[in-house]
Write a structure and sequence with these properties.
Length: 185
């Protein structure tokens, strides 16, 4: 997923975003790539061990980015640069909806600061039997409920879970939704 992260950041930069906020940043691939490409990068991760790993990578590589160990549904979003920011929801739809709706509820408080804010959602072409939402790569309800508009969609090879067989290699979707019409919140 390292090269996929680089491609996602290149697309975000091409769309004019200058800041990255990665919710569920894991090992920090997106914020690492963002920092290398000159974007102000912040990761929010609930797992302290993963935050420690991100900080270790940052320190040993001299690539600077901010890592916040916390729950994205409890973070004070006023501390972030919210203009020209792309927000990555680094989770597949089944678990990512909780993060996404929580983040939107927090952003409602900062309507005045929201200019050119995008949201990137990861989705899959392959649907498992237990997947509830099937439209728009698993994010249809969230996109429709939020009044978001798709700016760009790219397909990147990736495998996120251990239950995926090689012959059913998952295709990771980069779905960016424009967030100009903040009044729909």
């Amino acid at each position: 997923m390292g090269l996929s992260a680089l491609v996602m950041i290149l697309v975000a930069k091409d769309l004019g975003f200058e800041n990255i906020l990665d919710i569920g940043s894991g090992d920090g691939r997106l914020i690492f790539c963002g920092s290398i490409l000159g974007l102000n990068s912040v990761g929010i991760e609930i797992d302290k061990d993963l935050c420690d790993l991100q900080n270790k990578i940052s320190n040993s590589s001299n690539v600077e980015y901010k890592v916040i160990n916390g729950d994205s549904n409890s973070i004070d979003y006023s501390q972030f640069q919210l203009e020209n920011t792309i927000i990555f929801i680094s989770a597949l739809p089944d678990s990512g909806e909780i993060l996404s709706y929580g983040m939107l509820n927090h952003l409602k408080k900062y309507k005045a600061k929201l200019h050119n804010v995008g949201i990137t959602l990861m989705g899959s072409q392959a649907h498992r039997g237990y997947s509830g939402e099937q439209s728009k790569w698993g994010w249809g309800k969230f996109i429709d409920d939020s009044g978001l508009k798709i700016l760009k969609c790219i397909c990147l090879p990736s495998s996120w879970t251990l239950d995926e067989k090689k012959k059913h290699h998952i295709c990771l979707r980069f779905l960016s939704a424009e967030y100009y019409n903040i009044t729909t919140l």
